[in-house]
Structure formats: structure tokens, C-alpha cells
Amino acid sequence: MWQAKDDAIEAQDYARAAELRDEEKATLRRAVSELDEQLARTQFAAAIDAVMKLQAEVGRLGGLLQHWHGADAW
């Protein structure tokens, strides 16, 4: 795509160069958007994993409280 744009500029076909520039910008915007979505999914999955680990730890600590202080402690 970039070579075609450079060729259009050299040929002084500025309308074609502008079209190619716009296509290039759109392609870059799509790529950034896709990366943002992938990052969001990864962060969401990591957050879910952390919540599950915290829930397990809370359950473990609750069990210890009940063991050491009786059923009323939890």
C-alpha cells in the first residue's frame, strides 16, 4: 500500500495518493481497534481469574475462622 502511495505521488496523481492515504489510515484505525479489543478481553479474563482466586482465599480464611473460633465467627 505504501509503495503504491509513493508511486502515485511520484506520478503526481494526488487524488490516488489521497485515496491510498485514507485507506492506510482506515487500516491503521482497524488494527488499533482490534488490539484494543484483544487487550480488553485479556484484562477481563485476568480480572475474572483474580476474583476467583480471591473468592477461594476468602473461603479458606472463613474455614479457618470457623475452625478456630466456632461457627458463629463466620
From TrEMBL:
Domain of life: Bacteria
Gene3D superfamilies: UVR domain
Name of this protein: UVR domain-containing protein
